[in-house]
Amino acid sequence: MEVVPLSSADAVAALAADTIEALVRSRPACVLGVATGSTPVPTYAELVARHRAGTGPSYGEVRAFLLDEYVGLPAGHPQSYRATIARELTDDLGIAAERVHGPDPTDPATAGASYEQALLDAGGVDLQVLGIGSDGHLAFNEPGSSLASATRIKTLTETTRRDNARFFGSVDDVPRHVLTQGLGTILRARHLLFIATGSGKADAVAAAVEGPLTASCPASILQLHPHATVLLDPDAAAGLARLDHYREVYAAKPDWQGL
Ligand code: F6R
Questions:
Q1: Active-site residue numbers?
Q2: What is the pLDDT of residues 64-121, one digit of tens each?
Q3: Is any ligand 1 atom within 6 A of the Cβ of residue 68?
């Protein structure tokens, strides 16, 4: 795991965008795993701005796979993750709707197995963008989730429903159920690009990066992955005991290495 403490949330977005663009340039038909929520919004906005300015790569051959999706929202609901990613990223990058995949919330009993098959058929995810919940969840794998889990239905914790109420107006309107890639699914992605910003994530980041590997902090599976990159702003990095060391390592990183 490479922990990269950066000077600001804007610096996180810029480096995350650089990393995604580098992949798309080197592998135009790559498979991107996309998270939703507030954290990646500045990264996605940066990618879109560069694309509009003509400095970004072509995304015409890229396929995108959602990390998770709410169950029980009416089709086309603006807060569904399919609608959100189209609005925030894929439409503006020119990734056609049929190249954007997500677990099917209309058939939650079979959606998990179908989604796992779709990921396999696509050849797996090349780069997975990840955020973290204030309770340590990764995708919608809440504390207690199996470290080997596959895509399936899960029940959100009250903490997560309260955190996400800002998107819905009231906590009562936040769905209880979701479909989410499992922790085992996420571990199969070839590169994990984990981003966290803001003081509300500091405790969860410290637990995920420096705490024990445990189902009580699902994001601690980052420690199991051979290529996990952790981009943090100063607030999100504030709880890390080895912060100075991560800074030294990044400052001394060989130019040829990349992320
Ligand atoms: C979203 C997802 C979630 C979010 C997490 C943080 O697809 O899988 O795990 O990454 O809830 O959300 P924000 O970024 O809104 O704080």
A1: 68, 135, 137, 142
A2: 999 999 999 998 899 999 999 999 999 999 999 999 999 999 999 999 999 999 999 9
A3: yes
For residue 98, give the nearest of 90, 89, 106 by alpha carbon: 90
Amino acid letter at 143? Answer: P
Q: CB-based contacts of 242: which residues, under 8 Å, 6+ apart?
A: 3, 210
The radius of gyration of the chain's CA atoms, rounded to the nearest angstrom, is 17
Question: What's the CA-to-centroid distance between 107 and ligand 1, angstroms?
Answer: 23
Confirm whether pTM is higher than 0.90: yes
For ligand 1, is residue 38 a contact (CB within 6 Å)?
Answer: yes
For the Cβ of 164 lying below 6 angstroms from any atom of ligand 1, the answer is no
Classify the C-alpha dihedral 19-206-45-11 as positive or negative: negative
Helices assigned H by DSSP within 27-122:
41-53, 81-85, 91-93, 108-121
Domains of the chain: 7-128+136-189 (3.40.50.1360)
Cβ-proximal residues to 37 (8 Å cutoff; 6+ apart), any chain: 131, 164
Which letter does DSSP use for residue 109 in this model?
H
Contact assessment for residue 70 and residue 80, using Cβ atoms and an 8 Å cutoff: yes
